Amino acid sequence: VQLAESGGGLVQPGGSLRLSCAASGFTFSRYDMRWIRQAPGKEREFVALIRSDSGRTTYADSVKDRFTISRDTTKNTVYLQMNSLKPEDTAVYHCGVFLPLETVWGPGTQVTVSS
Questions:
Q1: b/e for 56-81, b at 16 or more Cβ within 10 A?
Q2: CA dihedral for 93, 63, 97, 1, sign (positive or negative)
Q3: What would the pLDDT profile of 41-63 be if each residue is shown by its tens digit?
Q4: Rounded Cα–Cα distance for residues 3 and 77 (Å)
Q5: Dihedral angle at the C-alpha atoms of 40, 10, 2, 31, nearest 10 degrees?
C-alpha cells in the first residue's frame, strides 16, 4: 500500500494550492480517504474526509468553506483544493486511509503560507 502526496509549495496569504494524493496497493474506491496536517511543534490535526460510498465530505472548522476534498476513482487519487490560504495553514499535509489491518499515511507535502 502506498500513498504519495504532491502539490505543496510556498504561497502568499490569500493564495491557492491543490494537493494530490496518488494511491496504490488497495481498492481505492472502497475506502474513505482523509487529509491531516502537522505544523512544527503541534499535534496532527484532522483536515478533511471524503467517504467512499456517498462521497460525503467532512471538514475541520478551521478550513471549512476554504478547502475542498474530492476524489477521482479512475485515477486512484484524492485531492485537496485549498483557497484563501492563511499563515496558520502552514504545515506538512498527509493523506491517509484506514484499512482493515493497518492505517497508512503518506510521507506528506509541505505547504508554507508566507508573504
A1: eeebeeebeeebbbebeeeebbbbbe
A2: negative
A3: 999 999 999 999 888 999 999 99
A4: 9
A5: 90
